[in-house]
Specification:
Distance between the termini: 134 Å
Number of strands: 2
Length: about 180
Amino acid sequence: MLFVLFLGKKGGHKGRMRTYTSPEEIDAQMKAEKERKKTEDEEGASVNDNQSEDKLTASGSEDSDDDGSQKRKGIEGLIEIENPNRAAQKTKKVTELELEGPRQLSRREREEIEKQKAKERYMKMHLAGKTDQAKADLARLAIIKKQREEAARKKEEERKAKEAAHEAAAAAKGIHTMSLK
């Protein structure tokens, strides 16, 4: 039994109607799924019993695959597939890892290292005054230094002229006050 709910323009997604499953159908689906799992488990248990008997008879051989212990998905358990493109993940021991050996750098890592070295070379040349930018900076600093020296000299001259004028005014004032006495 299927219940359909009509919601108008805003209710449905792209013009479709919403459908709901009845509780009875849900219960039936759940029961069918449980029965299917039970039959799979029983079949798997009988297969595992056969495998355990085989392992007991061949206890000294090391030819047994680890694939038997892993549960395969889908049809992989039924069909043996050898895919040459699929790389089997091999676990490495800590002692097998090569941490000290030379490692190949990726293109981006190489470019980053080259970029840093070029920047360091440029900074050394810049500090030595060999780059165009350093020469321009030094010329600008020399001009500013000359301007500051000229400004300081003018200021000193103005101060001396002011002092001389002040002394002359004081001397004239002193003579003027003496003459009044």
